[in-house]
Amino acid sequence: MGGRFIKLQSDIRSKVELSPFFAKHYETILNILSFGAYIPFTKRVIEKAPFENNDSVLDLGSGSGHFACLINKKANIKKYIGIDLSDTMLKRAKERCKSIKTAIFLKGKIEETLPFNNKFEKVFISFVLHGFEQPKREKIIKNAFNALKPGGKFIILDYAERNIDKSPFIVKLLIRKAECPLAEDFIKRDLKQMLKKAGFSKFEEVFFFKGYVRLEIASKSDENNI
After folding, report:
1. Among 56, 157, 195, 200, which is disulfide-ready with 126 (CB 3.0 to 4.6 Å)?
2. What is the pTM (predicted TM-score) of this model?
3. Is 225 within a domain?
4. If DSSP states are collapsed to H, E and C, what string results for the chain?
């Protein structure tokens, strides 16, 4: 979220690396822009998400550690690994989560092949997938599939499919002027079909903000083998 603060560089095609200032004040800025709705919203999301005691969790684009704290507060997480590209975000996450002994934060590109196979009960990604070009989105989804154990769940928080042309003016303004340049492309696509293509099934959905934001939960079948 917050595409106008994105640091665009010639070697960063994903358009998701935040500027140092925005990364440092991420939750504060989003809470101000949402008129105080962002923090309560994230708490509601984790309440609805199926994190359970003794889960191992991989967080793709883990940011400042805000969700890591919420997830670990909800459940007794056995192992949590967060991956992010931003040094500023990683520093904040490590400071914020220093009391969580099972949390590890690593620097890396989630759109590149990751060294995890059949390791996690849950993979989580929040408002990151829409910031990538389609081939890289598909790679991230495949990384999540490979990282999950059979029966594991991929938990995605992002924009739901929507016809932006038929949306209210304020939504058009947000998506086309304030968001990541790739957000509208993501909103036009069928996320379930992307997930099915990677091997996921058994979908669950929870909608927020009148259906504009969706928590998508996709399962990796017990019959799938890595």
Report:
1. 157
2. 0.86
3. no
4. CCHHHECCCCCCCCCCCECHHHHHCHHHHHHHHCCCCHHHHHHHHHHHCCCCCCCEEEEECCCCCHHHHHHHHHCCCCEEEEEECCHHHHHHHHHHCCCCCCEEEEECCCCCCCCCCCCEEEEEEECCHHHCCHHHHHHHHHHHHHHEEEEEEEEEEEECCCCHHHCCHHHHHHHHHHCCCCHHHHHHCCHHHHHHHHCEEEEEEEEEHHHCEEEEEEEECCCCCC
For the segment 61-87, what is each residue's pLDDT rounded down to a tens digit? Answer: 999 999 999 999 999 999 999 999 999
- Check which CATH number belongs to the domain holding 29 and give it: 3.40.50.150
Dist CA 148 CA 154 (whole Å):
8
Is pLDDT of 39 > 70? yes
**In a domain? residue 72:** yes
Q: Check whether 136 has a pLDDT greater than 50.
A: yes
